[in-house]
Amino acid sequence: EMSADGASMLAISDAGAWLTARLTRGGDALRGIEALGWGPLHDPAGGVDMRPAYRDAEGLAALPGGGWIVSFEGADRLARFAAPGAPEQTLRRFGGADGFGRNSGLEALALRPDGTLLAVRENGAADDPAQQALILAPDGATLRQIALPKAPGLRIVGADIDEDGRLWTVQRGFTLLGGFFFALEVADPDGDGYGPPRRLGMVRGEGADNAEGLSVWRDDLGRVRLAVISDDNFFPLQRTILYDFMAERPAAQTRRAP
């Protein structure tokens, strides 16, 4: 999650950790990252199980009044944290009765303008034309289920929603010959769900890695910016990268740039 001005960020790890950082910019370019603090998501004194299966954090959504919501995979659940390092407040646990199984948890979270949450599930085959998502109340109760259109061969792994209600997604794919690649797409709100997505760009080749998270912010010129973060899977040949994209120029300038 990026701050509103793009000057700082909060990130989580599937090892159950949090990181806050300050970002340095020069013109339109991201120049550097300075860690401000880091630590475990779980306070051991809070009585939360600390085994690895309970620490696999996936989705992150910052709350406007402070605090943040995190989705966990493995021990599938939705939790609220008042601040980095604060005890977990478990909002809801998911299980077989909810259709959750191995690698079918909540992969991405996004806060909607009405205060509800969009939770995208990691389920179905990569070639499916849509991915299942839940609209959740602030306490984690399911309000409805929707299908999010996606590109064949890709999975939605990160999502964010802007002040206009548009859904921005990062969709990741992998092939043995080509390695990782990912696409950025945006969809307008449409009733209870979202309309057909528009492709903004694709990252392939040496510059691509295992994209996992997405955050949307708007710079002081009114341009929509996208921050994408990748996960190195604790594998030495992969990297944790923060990508910085200009996704859309102000409304007065109709030309779009990926």
C-alpha-based Rg, rounded: 17 Å
**How many strands, which pairing sense, and closed or not: the largest β-sheet?**
4 strands, antiparallel
Which stretches are poorly predicted, pLDDT < 50 over at least 5 residues?
Answer: 252-258
The coarse overall form would be globular
What sequence of helices (H) and strands (E) makes up the elements?
EEEEEEEEEEEEEEEEEEEE
Helix content: under 10%
Average residue pLDDT: 88
* DSSP strand count: 20
**Head-to-tail CA distance between termini:** 20 Å
Number of helices: 0
**Arrangement of strands in the largest sheet:** 4-5-6-7
Fraction of residues in β-strands? over 45%
Q: What structural class results from the helix and strand content?
A: mainly beta
Task: Annotate the secondary structure layout.
Layout: E1 8-13, E2 17-26, E3 29-40, E4 57-62, E5 68-72, E6 77-81, E7 89-93, E8 106-111, E9 117-121, E10 130-136, E11 142-149, E12 155-161, E13 167-175, E14 179-187, E15 189-190, E16 193-194, E17 198-203, E18 211-218, E19 224-230, E20 242-248
Antiparallel strand pairs: 1-2, 2-3, 4-5, 5-6, 6-7, 8-9, 9-10, 10-11, 12-13, 13-14, 14-17, 15-16, 18-19, 19-20
